[in-house]
Amino acid sequence: MKQRIFLLLIVFAVWFSACTDPDKIKYPETKKVDQVDEYFGVEVEDPYRWLEDDRSPETEEWVKAQNQVTADYLAQIPFREKIKNRLTELYAFETIKSPVKKGDSYFYFKNDGVQDQPILYMQKSLEAEPTVLIDPNKLSEDGTVALNKKIAISNDGKYIAYLVSKAGSDWQEIFVRDIESGNDLEDHIKWVKFSDIAWYKDGFYYSAYPAAKEGEELTGMNKFQKIKYHKLGTDSKDDKIIFENKENPLRLYTAEVSSDEKYLFVYERESTSGNNLYVKNLQKKEAFVKLTTGFNYKYDVLDQLGDNLIVLTNYNAPKYKLVRIPVNKLNVGNWIDVIPEKKDVLKDCALVGDKIIASYMIDAKTKLEIYNNKGDYIQDIELPSIGSVSDIKSSTKNNEAFYTFKSFTVPPTIFKFNIESKSNEVFFEPKLDFDASEYETKQIFFEAKDGIKVPMFIVHKKGLKLDGNNPTLLYAYGGFSSSRTPDFKTDRLIWLENGGVFALANIRGGGEYGENWHKAGIRLNKQNVFDDFITASEYLIHEKYTSPDKLTIRGGSNGGLLIGAVINQRPDLYKVAFPEVGVMDMLRYHKFTIGWAWVEEYGSSEDSIHFKNLYNYSPLHNIKGGIDYPAVMVVTADHDDRVVPAHSFKYIATLQKKYKGKNPVLVRVQTKAGHGSGKPTSVKIEESADKWSFAFYNMGTTPAYGE
Q1: I need a surface site. Which of 115, 145, 307, 401 has the fewest CB within 10 A?
Q2: Where are the domains of the chain?
Q3: pTM of this prediction?
Q4: Catalytic one among 647, 675, 688, 693?
């Protein structure tokens, strides 16, 4: 009876909000429970704990009510539909991913721009007609079934093993397709997560968890991951366990096989910051050999050449180096530097024929260099402009490499480089309805609170007036050693077209300057991340790019935590804020799905020192009444099983309860979506239209597309 009354109250609240002035929002009433936790003598209330059960009828009704309030608010914005129409036009351009060559055939993803999911194509040569290999748009009517980009072609070129996810979840299923016939085999594997696929003989290695308990598929803690081997034509329940650790259930494992199928490599992780590396000779009946001890460093095997492993690592090299490890003398004393550590960060390396392409990051911009296998520098590969290179596809078996170049106003362009002739030509260049020549990109360095120089990219139309009246969007991430380099986002063009300024701050916590830059923004140093972002905001205001009435900020995941923290600490600097799929409850984040792996980054509330630090900045626990928050739209999704939506639910319920000002504080919950990957194009357009409409409307700016 109590539950029915509660549901009726929610329905009434939704109806009431829809019948009143949209600028005077009536938020749904969110019930409170008497939940108090004690941490080292400190009592912490958690009145919205019930929202952690995101599959309960009560939570589902609460989500519907919140979404209705948000939809009603957005419906009043006169230019939202025109922004959506312009986004639809902007998205309508063809894109492809760098091709992968296997044997004589090429495999690549292509999207015509309006398809919900990119399609996997195959060409038997670069001159041949492409054929569709897998079209994920046919796997669901609403486009929410996605094909993972980690395709795995068998070494004989007969089969492709592929990963499929549903509704944005991190959970995936493996299928196998006969390439010649285009038909799927009966092989089918479930409960796969955070996995690669590594072919060996007539089967493959993969990573899987035990089946989740019913009702806990999207929230339960992920434990006891294993490496398994699946032989084609057999039932997955008979798959052999190759590697597991029964003593340490909270570790991650992925497998790779050398290109000649001689060695199996297993990566073991207990966080996002480092890994152990194990090697097994598949031609001998030997046990795994552990190359490393502890999780202080990263090790990434590029391949095995002769009797040597080629490994990219930050072992005793915070900015990374490339080493050669003799397989018969694996002791660290026998490791040989191929490309030693330099002043710039060695972000990636690719083996091409008998050469190496090294991708360096210089002040968050890419530089490509060529070396021979001995580590002797040969020359640079010239890039078109300030930008970044990703998705380098190459092999030791041929002399060509494909890579993707992009920048803030340059969409992903594919280049083909020949390592012998040194020819570097455009393989694919997108054509879209946007004139990049009207815009400029600059990089500045501002001084952080403690005197450190921090880089920031600024993009805007040429001839911008620095009068403090420009709509400005500031974005940052600041965590997990993840570098934010010049990137192209179609939806961001809406901002630039309407005279907006876009700024990307490369704050500490990322990997832009190597592991030391990362460590300066984690655990007890996390406040540096927030301080850097606040200083970036103050720079944009001081230099008259914008003003607090025109400054919008956004960030996702760890970046959502960033936005939640800074609007608690300096709400006076911002007009609009988008905390997206954010980690908002810093006291309980480690209790859900893969959250335990972030303890190395954040610290844990189960430790007295880290509890105090986390409690001091946790977005959920530092919302205060009596201060004027910016307009806030929290963005999350109901199938996000990486940063569970409970973070956003509890955060917005608290903000709506405590904030008494005039700015809207709303939540947008996307259904049948997850943390971000695999999101259909149509959903991206709807979400972007909502966000940019919300931002422009609350800044008092009318886009050029109409009233």
Answers
A1: 307
A2: 345-431, 439-690
A3: 0.93
A4: 675
